[in-house]
Amino acid sequence: MTMSNHLKHQPRLSQTVKQIKPSGIRRFFDLASTMEDVISLGVGEPDFSTPWNVREASIASLEQGITSYTANAGLLELRQLISGYLSKFDTNYSPENEIVVTVGASEGIDLALRATINPGDEVLIVEPCFVSYAPLVSLVGGIPVAVPTSIENGFKVIATEIEQRVTNKTKCILLSYPNNPTGAIMEKDELEEIAQIIQKHDLLVISDEIYAELTYDVNHVSVPALKGMWERTILISGFSKSFAMTGWRLGYVAAPEVYAKEMLKIHQYAMMCASTMAQYAAIEALTNGREEMENMKVSYKQRRNFFVKSLKGIGLDCHIPGGAFYAFPSITSTGLTSEEFAEKLLIEEHVAVVPGTVFGAGGEGHIRCSYATSLQQLEEALKRIDRFIKNC
Amino acid sequence: MTEKERELLELLEKSGRMSEDKIAMMLDVTVEDVTSMIQKLEKERVIIGYSTIIDWSKVNTSESVTAMIDVKVTPKRGVGFDEVAERIYRFKEVKALYLMSGTYDLSVVIEGKSMSEIARFVSDKLSTLDSVISTTTHFQLKKYKHDGIVFEDRDEDHRIVVSP
What keywords were assigned to this record (chain B) (predicted)? Predict the structure, then answer.
């Protein structure tokens, strides 16, 4: 048979998937990857390697031949440790039926949305935010509705902004504090204010608290710890940021059993269980990892102080980010859009930052700079940004 | 000791050359605060001195040998180990000296130009001290890590350039 006799395959793609745009980060990644001597402030992960004791625990589990599946929800020992860990944030989750160990916090967000959203349900998303929220909402047929925040309020979400967007189709709100990309945090009284609105309209909260450990001026307040919020919150967290374990892909969801058991069903069919060797690493992280984590936190804080002050010194307006490891300065003084600024800076000065618009339309006028990189790199990047701005 | 002082010490321990300006920015205090904190800590001899960690094996004109010597001594009434310790650490060849628990008493770190120079020091100077009962000399063959710093660190950044 010759090739010409083959019947041509017409790609059979899902309309929903086709409508989703690839992440805006991709373009910058491709451009930056072609250059040498790029200083990257575009990296959304710690610059530390996973602490050695954690890596070693995983190696030991491999040496012992522990390479089989675990329980769908994850090793019970790990869930018990997670439960104990979460209790430090004044929350109480049963290891047996209210915690599911996932493949990164990313899977956790997907599980939460798939378990709760019907086609046509509206999901409020506080923006700027992590790139995957809106696409994941669309994939389950939900309708993402952006709730904007701005530099005037230090990128904290305001109750009236939420309430204005609530309709009879609104089911859920996606919160993420400490925030990627803005570094904003919400303090207790600020959260209590929005909790009132959330309860008034009987909304579900998906609270992505992956950066919970990384707050520098006040302690993190967990949404389910607030009065009346536990029963309406699905908590998402993981090991990536606090324990420098991004590549292990290990996170978890914690929620009342009524939600947890439905999420577990999806996880069971789609994933079976999270990686076993990563779960053993996580056990060590939660058992003996605190000191190392605190050291990393001090180092981020010092670099934050240095970097944000330096940004102001070269004339870029920047709120003090209370958490995570990002600064989100305004670049409107240059007259450039976020995209233009990031692209020109990369081409002319070989410094990679991420345009704010990648994290939602509300990010226009800002760029995200990760300060999780060495002091020397930060200093050199600042020198180049300063030169760039002066030539604008 | 305040929290800021502790942070300052940890920064200086990692890099003694870090400027006061930079330290001030990182600790969110004024440069004057940093200067006075350092002066205070120097005065209290919390900060003993400033040195540089050098990989002398890369300097081909400088041949040096380091040995660690376990020394058993007889302590003296009234002064314990302090008197003999002082007699030992006054030698300029002695880079470090510790009182130890275990099967010997003093651990002496010696640097010399050659093994024979160190051998001469042990037989002529150290063993002949009245209080010294015995010595066991170990020569260092290679330095992997010193004062928390890995000498041949292959610390590459494996992260992808841009990620969400």
Answer: DNA-binding, Transcription, Transcription regulation
Q: Which two tokens stand for residue B82?
A: 């302090």
If we measure between CA atoms, which residue out of A173, A155, A166 comes closest to residue A234?
A173
| Residue A184 counted as domain residue | yes
Nearest to A302 by CA among B8, B46, B87: B8
With residue A170 as reference, give the H or E element that holds it: strand A170-175
- Tell whether pTM > 0.90: yes
Quick one: which H or E segment has residue B149? Answer: strand B149-150
Of the candidates A252, A254, A245, A249, the residue with the CA atom closest to the CA atom of residue A223:
A254
Q: With the CA atoms of A323, A197, A87 and A326 taken in that order, what torsion angle do they form, in degrees rounded to the nearest 10?
A: -10
Write the pLDDT tens digit of every residue in A185-217: 999 999 999 999 999 999 999 999 999 999 999
Answer whether A42 sits within 8 Å of B161, measured CB to CB: yes
Q: In angstroms, rounded to a whole number, what is the distance separating the alpha carbons of residues A296 and A303?
A: 11
A235: amino acid identity, one letter: L
Q: Does B164 touch chain A (CB under 8 A)?
A: yes
Query: What is d(CA A254, CA A79) in angstroms, rounded to the nearest whole number?
Result: 10
Taking only the tens place, the pLDDT of each residue in A5-33 is 788 999 999 999 999 988 878 888 888 88
Residues A240 and A113 in one domain: yes
The residues, ordered by sequence, that sit 6+ positions from A202 with a Cβ below 8 Å of its Cβ are: A232
pLDDT above 60: residue B111:
yes
Using the predicted structure, report yes or no on whether residue B74 has a pLDDT greater than 90: yes
The tokens for B64 are 């040096």
pLDDT beyond 70 at A1: no
Do A95 and A111 sit in the same domain of this protein?
Answer: yes
Q: What is the CATH number of the domain that holds A112?
A: 3.40.640.10
- Tell whether A2 is covered by a domain: no
Query: A326: distance to nearest CA of chain B, Å?
Result: 11
ipTM of the complex as predicted? 0.84
Among B27, B159, B164, the residue with its CB nearest the CB of A302 is B27
A370 to chain B, any CB pair closer than 8 A? The answer is no
